[in-house]
Amino acid sequence: MKKIVMGVLAHVDSGKTTLSEALLYISGTIKKAGRVDHGDTALDTNEIERDRGITVFSKQAMLKFNDMELCLLDTPGHVDFGAEAERTLQVIDCAVLIISALEGIQNHTITLWNLLKSYNTPTFIFVNKMDLNGVDKNAVISQLKKQFGSGCIDFSSENKDMYEEVAVSSEQLMEKYLTQGQINDEDISDLVFSRDIFPCFFGSALKMEGINEFLNGVDKYTKKIPYPEKFGAKVFKVSYENNERITFLKVTGGQLRIKDVIQQKDKNGEIHSEKINQIRVYTGNKYKTEKELSSGSVCGVTGLNFTYPGQGIGNQKNNESSVLQAIFNYKVIFDEKYDVRKILSNLRQLEEEEPQLHVEWNEQSKLINLSLMGEIQLEVIKTLFFQRFGIDISFDAGSVAYKETIKNIVEGVGHYEPLRHYAEVHLLLEPGKNGSGIVFDTICSEDKLDRNWQRLVMTHLLEKTHLGVLTGAPITDIKITLVNGRAHIKHTEGGDFRQATYRAVRNGLMQAESVLLEPWYNFEITVPTENIGRVISDVQKMSGSFDSPQTDGENSILVGMAPVSEINSYNSTLTNFTRGKGRIVLTFSEYKPCHNRQQIIEEKAYNPESDLENTPDSVFCSHGAGFVVKWNDVKNKMHLPSFLKEKNIQPQRTFHISKKQVEQYCNSLEEDKELLKIFEQTYGKIKTDKYLALQSTTKNKNNDISTNFVPYEREYLLVDGYNIIFAWDNLKKIAKEDLEDARHALINILCNYRGFKKCEVIVVFDAYKVKGNSGEISKYHNITIVYTKEAETADMYIEKVTHEIGKRNHVRVATSDGLEQIIILGHGAYRVSALAFKEEVEAVEKAIQEYLE
What is the 3-class SS of 441-490, one letter each residue? Predict the structure, then answer.
C-alpha cells in the first residue's frame, strides 16, 4: 500500500478543516462529518479551537482510499500560527493548498505558497466554496496562473485542454504527446513532484462536492516514496496531554518498534538514550496504539524527554532554522503571589511545544520575556496557560523583536581564576551571512585543550541565549569558533569553563562593531491608481523602499520592503483612505539594520557593563585572591597568546553610513550659515533635488553606522590636535609650510565630523611652552578648542578630562601617543588610533561626496 503524508494548508476561513472533515467522511473514516461552526469536527478538538472556530494546533488524521494510506496533517490557517504550519512541512510528502473561490488568493495564502516553494513541496490546489453566489471559476484560474504561474492547471475534468496544458510544461513530454497523442499518470506524477505543475480541483467541502474527484487525483498523481533501510525519524511537534509528553514524528527510514532504545542529541548537543514506551497513530484526539511502524508513517510516541521540533533522530539530519520567525517581544505579567521560578518552568514547557516563544529570563530584573507572532497567539497563550496551570498571566504592549550582529572579526577572551579555579577561553567572532543565525565551531588543537574541555565549551555556547551590547537583544548571524583554551590540571572544574566561555563571548562583542537589526516585511500594496501617490508618500515616511508602481487596470500595485515597526498597523489606514478598496499583503522578509537605531538604543538605555549576568570582564588571581579585570584590559593580562596576532589577522574596521543620515546632515546645514560655509569649502555647493522625494531607495543596502555605541549620558571625542596633525600625512604636509593653516584645516574637518556624528568634540592643542599662558577654552561653531595652560601638555589635559567625565559618558580619545592611550584606558575611555580616526573621517567624507554627486 502506498503511504502518503499530505499537509492541509490555507488562509484562515478558507474551509481547510471542513475539507479535512469531508475527506475523512468520504473515505469512510468517520460516520458523520462535523462542522466548524457547530464545534463538532474530528480535528479541532481543543476547547480554544472550538471557542474561536479556528485551528490552533496541527492535527493528524488517517484515512484509506483505494490502495493509498493517506495521512492528513491539518495545520492552523491564521498567520499567528504560521510557525506551527511550517513545522509540518518538514515531514509531508505533498500538500493541498485551499483557496476560497469567493476571496481568492489572500495575504496568508501567499506566505504559505512561498513556504511550500522554499521546502520544495509538491502541491495540489483545491478551490473551495464554489457553491457560493458570485463565484467565477475562470477568474479564479486566471488569478492562480497570474500569481503562482502557468503550472496551475484545471484538473477537474480530464480533457484535451488539460493534457495539452500539462504537455506544454515539459519539452520532453510535449514531444511524447505530439508523437503518441497521450500522457500517462506516471508522467503527470513526475511533473507534480518536480513542482512543474500544480493540479487544481474545484468544489464545496461543506456540500461534499468535488471531494471524490480530488481524492482520486491525489491517488493517481502521487507516487510511492522510497526510504532507506537504516532507521531515521524527524520530529515535527511536541505536546503535553494529561502531563504526559508526546513526541510527534515521521519515520524516515527503517522500522520503529515499541521498547526500542532511541539515541538522540538534545539542543545543547548532549546525547540521551531513552526507550519508546508507546506508539500512537492519531486521528484528531483519538488514537490507536501500534507495536511497530514502517517508513513513511507518522505517529506520536511517549518516553522521549529531550526531543524538539526539527530534530533528526538516527539517520535523519536536523532541520535548519525556520523561515517564519516570531517578531514581537512581550513582557509576562503575573500576580506577585506566584513563584517566578514556577511561572518560568511552566512557560518553558510551552516553549517545548512552540519553540518560537523564545522564553527569556533576566536574573537581574527578574523579568520574563517571550516572542510571539501576533495578538491572537498572545491571547491563546494566555488561555492555554490558565487551562493547563491554573494561573492567570497577561502581557505588556509589546514591541518588535530586535537582534544584534557584528560587522568585523574580533577575538573574545574570557578568563576565570578565583582561588582554586582556572579556565581561559579564546573565541573568534566573525560576521555571518544574513539569516544564518549563530554557528559554532572549533579549530582548537587537542594538544592545547583536551577534547572533553572543548566539548564543555561548545555545550556552554549552545545552552545560552547570548545578548548583544547595544540594547541587550539576542545576537544572530555570527560564527563563533573556539580557537584556544587552557585548563589547570588540579583546579579546573566544569563551571569554570562556563564562566570563561560566557565572558569570552561578551568580551568579543564589546570589541566588535555592533549593528542593531530589526525585522522587515515585504509588502505588496494594491490601491486605486488615484491613491498611489499617498501610498508612496506613506512608505517613504516609514523608511521603506519600493520599486516603480505597476498598473493593473484601474489599480496600481506597489511592491517593496519596510520595517515591521512602521508598516505593521498600516492596513487600517489603507482601508480608510481607499474606502475599503486597498489591499496590503505583508510577508516576513529578513532582519536588516535598524532604521532608527539611535532612538531605539536610547530608549532601551542598556549598559552592557552593568549587566552582571552577562559581564564582559574577567577574573584573575594574584597573591591568593581573585580580582576583576575590565574587558578592555583582559588582553594585557591573558595567559595565552592572541590567535589573531599569531595568524597575523588585522581586526577589521568598517564604517557603514546611511544615505538618510547624510541627507539629514546636509539639510541641517541650512540653519547654520557659518557651518555651511565650512562645509561648502570642502565639498562644494549643496544642490537640492525637487524630485528626491519620489525616488525609491531599494538599491541602498548600507543603512547603518556600525560603530559601537554605549548609551551613556553623552558621547565625547577628545582629539590631541598636534598629535593628529603630525600623524596624518595631508595635515603634516600643510604644517611644514604653516602650522596655523594645518590647525585650521583640522578644525574644519572636525566641524564637519561633529555635525555629522552628533557627539561633543574637544580638540586640545599644546601651549605649555608659552610663558604666562593661563590656558584658553573657546567655542568655534560646533566644537570646543582648548589651548593648554603653561606647564600643562595636551595629554595631561586629556587625562584630567577623561577622569572627570569618563564614568558617566562615552568618551573616545583620538591620538597616536602610546603612553596617553594607556592612561586614558585607565579612566574608562576608548582609544582611537590616529590611523583609525582618519579612516572614520574619510568614510564620513566619502559618504557625503557620494550623496552630493
Answer: EECCCCCCCCHHHHHHHHHHHHHCCCECCCCCCEECCEEEEEEEEEECCC
Q: Write out the three cell numbers for 82.
A: 504560521
How many whole angstroms separate alpha carbon 454 and alpha carbon 269?
A: 12
Q: What pLDDT shows up at residue 342?
A: 92
- Report the pLDDT value the prediction gives residue 679, as an integer from 0 to 100: 59
What is d(CA 121, CA 139) in angstroms, rounded to the nearest whole number? 25
DSSP E strands in 119-221: the ranges are 123-128, 152-154, 198-202
Alpha helices, DSSP H, located in 182-274: 185-193, 211-221
Q: Which grid coordinates are listed for 525?
A: 500594496
For residues 114 and 123, what is the distance between their CA atoms, to the nearest angstrom? 12
Q: What was the pLDDT predicted at 655?
A: 54
Q: Which amino acid would we find at residue 322?
A: S
**Alpha-carbon separation of residue 171 from 122, 159, 178, 195 (angstroms):** 20, 20, 11, 15
326 near 403, Cβ under 8 Å? no
Distance CA 170, CA 358 (A): 45
Nearest to 516 by CA among 557, 475, 486: 475
Q: How far apart are CA 427 and CA 422, in angstroms?
A: 17
Extract the C-alpha cell encoding 490: 588540579
Beta-strand pair 278-283/232-241: unpaired
In angstroms, the Cα distances linking 555 to 109, 572, 585 are 21, 19, 15
| Paired sense of beta strands 152-154 and 94-100, if any | unpaired
Question: Which amino acid is located at 573 in the chain?
Answer: T
Tell me whether strands 783-787 and 760-765 are parallel, antiparallel or unpaired: parallel
Reported as a single tens digit per residue, the pLDDT across 259-275 is 999 998 888 778 899 99
Q: Do the beta carbons of residue 820 and residue 813 sit within 8 Å?
A: yes
> Cell numbers at residue 162, please?
488539460
Distances (CA, A) of 202 to 103, 128, 130, 155, 205: 14, 6, 7, 9, 9
Residue whose C-alpha cell is 514581537 = 328
Cβ atoms of 31 and 21 within 8 Å: the answer is no
User: What's the grid cell of residue 580?
Assistant: 475599503
- Amino acid found at 78: H
The kind and range of the H/E element at 674 are helix 673-683
Integer Cα distance of 73 and 36 in angstroms: 17
In 3D space, the residue among 806, 778, 807 whose CA is nearest the CA of residue 718 turns out to be 806
- Angstrom distance (rounded) from CA 318 to CA 311: 5
How far apart, in whole angstroms, are the C-alpha atoms of residue 688 and residue 312? 58
The CA distance from 550 to 548, in Å, is 7
Name the stretches of the chain with pLDDT < 70: 648-713, 768-774, 806-808, 817-830, 851, 853
The pLDDT value given to residue 670: 54
Residue whose C-alpha cell reads 492519531 in the numeric block = 282
Q: Give yes or no for a contact between 409 and 364, defined as CB atoms under 8 angstroms apart.
A: no
Q: How far is the first Cα of the chain from the last one, in angstroms, to the nearest whole number?
A: 69
Q: What is the pLDDT of residue 678?
A: 59
Cβ atoms 711, 604 nearer than 8 A = yes
Reading the block at residue 785, the C-alpha cell is 578648542
Q: Please state, in angstroms and rounded to a whole number, the distance separating the CA atoms of residues 388 and 352.
A: 14
597-613 burial: b if 16+ Cβ within 10 Å, else e: beebbeebebebbebee
Please give the pLDDT value at position 697. Answer: 34
**Beta pairing, strands 438-442 & 478-487:** parallel
> Which grid cell is 134?
458570485
